[in-house]
Amino acid sequence: MQNINEIEELIKLISKLPGLGPKSAKRIVLKLINNREEIIKPLTKALAEVYKNISRCKICGTLKPTSFECSYDNCEIVKKKYDKICVVENLSDQWSIESSNIYKGYFHILGGTISSAGQKKEDLLVNSLVERVKKDKIEEIILATSATVEGQTTAYYIQDSLKNCKVKITKLAQGLPVGGEIESLDDGTLFSAFKNRSSIISNS
């Protein structure tokens, strides 16, 4: 492939996507170039729209239209009221759980783990989780962090942060393998993990 700056830059950017390396990125770029009108044009428009109109909620961490205002008192994203919050590491974990139809309740996306690269305790949305528990009359917090060292360390930190709140704290149980990540689990494993979740501590 000729050294064309625009193409090299596109390959470099696509290579940063999960599961893709330079070879896969090159194949994708070639596919795009060969389908300029069918793929590149609508893709460019869709990306621009997402960049302009979608952002992460600073309170719960989920995706939202930029026109929605984040507020502890009024969540415009979820209309129905719930009494429990499922805490996950990333948006992909939320999507996996939602697609399984196992859980009905609020989500709280931390944005990583304490020990993950570049993440510090203050970078995670733990303080806003505590505020949500206080303001939304939450009865149960379900810790659905991964069964990795980082995930469990983060779970312990959340548990400690909620020690003065009157809320039941549970964690996913059987079916969640040691070292496993939420987004890679099948529906049956997730169902077992939610159904058999165990109580960590109750401050009620």
- How many helices does DSSP assign? 7
Which sequence of strands runs across the widest sheet? Answer: 4-3-5-6-7
Total beta strands: 7
Terminal-residue CA separation: 65 Å
Whole-number average pLDDT? Answer: 83
Proportion in helices: 40-55%
Relative strand content:
5-15%
Q: The biggest beta sheet, please?
A: 5 strands, mixed
Estimate the global geometry from the Cα principal axes. Answer: elongated
Assembly annotation: single chain
Give start-end ranges of low-pLDDT stretches. none
What structural category arises from helix and sheet content? alpha/beta
Report the order of strands and helices. HHHEEEHEHEHEHE
User: For the CA atoms, what is the radius of gyration?
Assistant: 20 Å
Description:
This protein is of the alpha/beta class. 41% of the residues lie in helices and 14% in strands. The protein is built from 7 helices and 7 strands; from the N terminus they run H-H-H-E-E-E-H-E-H-E-H-E-H-E. Strands 4-3-5-6-7 form a 5-stranded mixed beta sheet. Helix 6 links the parallel strand 5 (140-143) and strand 6 (168-171). Helix 1 (5-14) crosses helix 2 (22-34). The protein is elongated. The N and C termini lie far apart (65 Å). The mean pLDDT is 83.
